[in-house]
Amino acid sequence: MPRTSDKRERLVDAAVNLFHQRGYGQTSLSDIAEHSGVPLGNVYYYFKTKDDLANAVIDERIHHQQTMFQHCEQANNPQASLFKFLDTLVEYSGDISRYGCPIASLCQELNKDESELANKADILLGQAIKWTTQQFKLMGKSEPSKLSQHLMSTMHGASLLANTFSKPRIIKEEAARMKEWINNL
Amino acid sequence: MPRTSDKRERLVDAAVNLFHQRGYGQTSLSDIAEHSGVPLGNVYYYFKTKDDLANAVIDERIHHQQTMFQHCEQANNPQASLFKFLDTLVEYSGDISRYGCPIASLCQELNKDESELANKADILLGQAIKWTTQQFKLMGKSEPSKLSQHLMSTMHGASLLANTFSKPRIIKEEAARMKEWINNL
DNA sequence: GTCTATATGTTGATAGAC
DNA sequence: GTCTATCAACATATAGAC
């Protein structure tokens, strides 16, 4: 009996991907069990409910996003950090146009329920708003939260359009537009 | 036996609302039957499958949106028409912040399936892109489709943020920003 | 800790009386 | 055209042997 098993990790990994590709409601626990190579009955040893697993999925996304922002902060200045963030979105534009933005998917779907899971998903988007606000603030701009709101609105809408029409190009173009907008602030 | 029954209409009405509030996947046919006062077994006389009903729902949304755009066109000029469109979004900002944009909800959720229903939902968003593009074109702007893309991106992203944080204000603010952007084109 | 078998409920969809 | 009764499949979740 191994003291540590990688089953929990494999379950979360599979759930992260399947929730993104099919949505939370349309992904069954047997789907997740199958994709992670864990028998269905054993899932409940690691997660008492499906919501519990979703919670772990969101935690993983929060951690992943935090790492991404830390990577962006390696740039020379806050404006370059914002540009690096936009470059990252463009980098993922293929996945986003195929399956939609994983964060938006969770926020949109879970906010239809009245579950506590919705609030948890909202933290994800809140984290991104907070980070971009901070970059505008460091740039010395006034009303940084309004600027962040506009940036995130535009890029999230671009993700929706890119997904709907299967055109990653839309994310590229709107990211370029946002860079120019930031330059002219 | 009435030659015409309003049951079909009541079913579509209930489905339009429930799909918006709970999503397509999380709305059961018995929910719809209950809310429209039609026995479950009778639903299948009007719609052979759930997808059939969804098709009728999207048709209804297409028609509703077309009427809305025709209303916007009563303005004096294409720029005023665009402003009227933005005013309409602000008017619905309460509903949108509660349940999300009904069009985005459908596009996002149905594009997770590989169903033909996804293409049908995409027509909805395409209709809006097409109309706004036409307004920019009538204004004599170059690259009108790019302008439409940016306008729709921003407002759809604003809807997501407004829904996530339950802040209709976000739709108001981004609509105002877009008006100013259009003024300075 | 792991897995098989199964309980329990809900879904989309059908059969058939009226 | 309308409605009751019900099926078959699938969902989440549990029991209990190993």
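qc> Residues 50-72 of chain B form the longest helix (23 residues).
qc> done
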